[in-house]
Amino acid sequence: MRNFAYLLGLFIVILGFVSFDLFTQNKQLERSVFAAQTRDLSAATEKLSTLHSTVEQSLLFQDEKALNNELDSIWRMSSDLRKSVANLPIQPEVQNEWMRYLGRIGDNAKQAAQTGDYENWRNKMTTVAANLHAFAEEWNTATVAFYENDGDMKKWSTNHTTDLSESPFMNVSKQLKTYNETDFPLTASESDYEKKRDLQHIKDEKITKSEAIKKFKNFFPNIDDALVTVTKSSDDAPYPFYHIQYIHGSKIGYADITENGGHLLSFLLERPVKKHPLSHEEILNTAERFMKKVGYSDVKLSESRENHEAWHFVFSRVHGEDEALVYPDSIQVKVAKDNAEILGVNAMEYIQEEKITAQGEVPIDWEEFFSDQVSVEEMKKIYTANKNLQLRKCYEVIARLNNQSNDTFRIVIDAETHEVIKNEKLN
Amino acid sequence: MSLKKIVLFILILSGSFASHTIAFSDQEVQRGAFGDDVVELQARLQYLSFYHGKIDGKFGYGTYWALRNFQEQYGLPVDGIAGQKTKEKLVNNSDFDRAFVHEQINAGNQFTYYGGIPLKDQVKKSGTAAGTGSNKESGKGSNLTDSMQLPPGYSEQDLQILANAVYGEARGEPYEGQVAVAAVILNRLESPEFPDTISEIIFQPLAFTAVADGQIWLTPNERAKQAVLDAINGWDPSENALYYFNPVTATSKWIWSRPQIKQIGEHIFCL
């Protein structure tokens, strides 16, 4: 009994030491996090003030060089401030609105520097500067209490989950929402993009649940006896669709089919894939036959990539007499290497279909366009969206640097304005 | 010499001959291909000093131009495709030590395979340079099993961190649900309301439970990597969602106010 009491006492003493050590470690960790978050909060406040000043300073100049200098600073500063905001433990809605607003300021600065449309910049930024000033004041009011948290992590953490209506960031959130709507309303091309993304142009007749299953079985006859479960998208979804989940032996997957018109949005099948592959030709032929069978006949292969279990192919819609590839209207197909079974289809972009407007085309002398050590290896015409989300006809050039490693680049050039839209190194 | 010995001699001879020529599979190898045939193609092209890039089993443009140059120099039709004739010509004019090459790849070593240089001098030990090629990076790379071919704009690091996030967040979910979680992260990349890089999105404070509870550091399985690969290649079972939550465990009132799209497994996906 005596020994037991002795051992128990010793155990309690050791437990006390361990607990104290853990407590100390936890406290140290809390202090580090608290310090990091306070630093981010202070940084965000300081950068907001600097951004406000720089936006105001940009309104001083007519001189192109002086103004471009300020625009460059604004773009960098807004990007920097976005990073600080992303690290703040505040409500996601406040964080999102703020990041959107800063992104818009940065994008506008970049665009003004690129296009030289300084008049538009001045018109917009007069209001933005005033709003940034008002916002900075509200932000200071909202955050002043956070410096009085006495290192209490609980106060920080609860803020994130506190309902916005009870939070000091309530007014900040309201302000940002209003500023986003009034200072940067959606442009025509952005609005078109949203409509397209939400499939608002599909006015086809609605199909029923059983018609959706029938469509699914027509698309994939090899699993037409699969056990299926169909649910409809939530009422809030921007476009209504049927979500079909299926099981067929070891195969399991899903297909999403639009309610309007029964278009296949996407399909995936998961199953074990055996090691012995068929040839690339057989696999590609199966993919091409599938495309024809399901009615995607206006497409052409634009990309292919092999991986451990499957080949991924991309087919893009062709448009016009010169058969330009419309990249935003592409279909991705995944084909199993062991038996060329279709493992996946993603036709969402194809269904969203771009509206193509007439556009001029000015040929380019590649020898003048590129430097002497560059060989133009391939050139084709494509349609792709520029930075302003406008669909443009472009020249897509595969160019090779004549060096030892034959560095290869894909350069996309607007066919009318000759603006370089994309320039990426290919592996 | 007895008949038995003659047969044995012929067998040994044909065996050594076979190990020299029967190497490539009977597949045509072309741009976009991936795997052992490409490894051999790159190694043989490097042996002949046509290829100076990394031997990684990925048939990209570097391999393509090297192969075309080889075809041109050896009087073959120049198409950048390793068909039967090209492969035969390569086999007859180069050497390929499969065991050595695959050992280096599996170990994740940086190495080269130039002809005329002892193989031991072409393996790079950490912090030293090897080989005569221009690709003199130090340290270890990813091996062929972990490696994957990704669309332009994505790196192996993106794949890795996304797979960690998917595994930490949704390893108990159906495959579709795992692809959807990866797609949500990629959708955030397109949205002006979120940071501009994959890692900044994943490590945004309190954005993902797996980061908060440390499960992001678990080693992802092959299924999570495949799910990420599908999302990177364009699949989005979430149908453009920016958020998801588990209705059983979610404590935030705000997340319930988001417009919902659909439920996959335990997660509700929303805008």
Automatic annotation (TrEMBL), chain A:
It comes from Solibacillus merdavium. Pfam families: YPEB_PepSY1-2. Residues 168-353 form the Sporulation protein YpeB PepSY1 and PepSY2 domain. It comes from the Bacteria. InterPro entries: YpeB_PepSY1-2. This is Germination protein YpeB.
From TrEMBL, chain B:
Residues 125-149 are annotated as: Disordered. It holds the Pfam family PG_binding_1. Residues 35-90 form the Peptidoglycan binding-like domain. The keyword Hydrolase applies. Residues 172-270 form the Cell wall hydrolase SleB domain. SUPFAM superfamilies: PGBD-like. Residues 129-148 have a biased composition (Polar residues). InterPro entries: Cell_wall_hydrolase_SleB, Peptidoglycan-bd-like, PGBD-like_sf, PGBDSf, SleB_dom1, Spore_cortex_SleB. The keyword Hydrolase applies. Keywords: Cell wall biogenesis/degradation, Germination, Hydrolase, Signal, Sporulation. Residues 1-23 form the signal peptide. Belongs to the SleB family. This is Spore cortex-lytic enzyme. The gene is sleB.
